[in-house]
Amino acid sequence: MEKVSKNSSMEGKEKYYWKWAFLLLLGVVFGLSLFLGTRIFANREPDFAEIPPITQRQGEPVLTINTNKKKVNQIISFFLSEYQKDQEIEYTFYLENEAMLNGTFEVLGFPINFYLYFDPYMMENGNVQLKAKSLSIGTLSLPIKDVMNMIKRNYKIPEWIDINTEDLTVMLRLDHFRMQNGMYIKTDKIDLVNDDIRFSLYLPKDSGTDKEHKTSKDKKKNHIDSTNKMNDRSIKTKERLFL
What is the C-alpha separation between 185 and 201, in angstroms, rounded? Predict the structure, then answer.
C-alpha cells in the first residue's frame, strides 16, 4: 500500500512539474514573439518637421529664373502658335529693346501689315503693363486707339490680358494666368536694353502638399495604432495562460 501511495504521489508531482514547464515554455515563446513583433513593427522613422502648406502666391517662390529676350521670345512663339490654332487672323508678339505686336487687318479687302510698339513696366504685384508708344502701318496714318480697338474686337486674346484703349495700355495679368500644372508666374525684373529678365514660379493656392502630408501622417498613425493593438493582445494572451 505504501509503495502504491508513493508511486501515485510521484506521478502527481511529475504531472505538476510538466504543467509548469509547459506554461513556462509557452511564456517564453509568447515573450519572444512579443519582442520580435515590437522590433519588427516599431516605427524607426525620425519625426521630421511638418511642411507648412503654401496657400498664397505672396509666399516664398519655389523657383526663380533669370533669362533673356531670346528665350522669352521662344516661349511666347510656342504659346501663341498653340493658342491661335485654326484662327484666320494671327499675330505675333516679341521682345527687342521694346515689346512689339505684329499683325494684319484688311482695308477695302487688302491686308495691311502693322507694328505696334510698347514700353513694358513691371507692376508691384508682379504683373506687366505694356504702354503703347508708336505705330508703324506703312504710309497710312491711323490713331493707335483705333488699331487697339480693332485688335480687341477681332483678335483672339487670352482672358488674362486686358486691353485698355483709353489709356493705350495692355495689362498682362499674370496673377490670373495659370500654367497647365497650376503654377503661378510673377515678374521680378524686366530690362530689355540690358537683356535681363527675371521671374519666379509659385505653387498653386490649392496645392496638394498639405493634403499629401496629412494622408502620410494618418497612415503613419494608423500603423502605430495597429502595432500597439497587436502588442496588447499578445500581453493579454500571455497573462491568461499564466492564470
Answer: 5
pTM of the entire predicted model: 0.60
- Sorted by sequence, the CB contacts under 8 Å of residue 168 that are 6+ apart come out as 131, 132, 144, 145, 148
Q: How much is the pLDDT for 3?
A: 47
Q: What is the C-alpha separation between 130 and 116, in angstroms, rounded?
A: 11
* DSSP codes joined into one string, 172-233: E-GGG---TT--EEEEEEEETTTTEEEEEEE--TT-SHHHHHHHHHHHHHHHHHHHHHHHHH
Q: Which three cell numbers stand for residue 46?
A: 525620425
Q: Specify the residue for cell string 498682362.
A: 172
Domain ranges of the chain: 1-43+229-243, 63-202
Positions of the chain with pLDDT under 50: 1-4, 6, 35-56, 58, 207-214, 235, 237-243
Three-class SS state of 160? coil
Which residues, in sequence order, are bridge partners of residue 186?
200
E-assigned strands of the chain?
63-67, 92-95, 99-107, 110-122, 128-136, 161-164, 169-172, 184-191, 196-202
CB-based contacts of 3-8 (< 8 A; 24+ apart in sequence): none
Distance CA 157, CA 151 (A): 9
- Calculate the CA 95 to chain-centre distance: 30
Closest of 214, 213, 215, 209 to residue 59, by C-alpha: 209
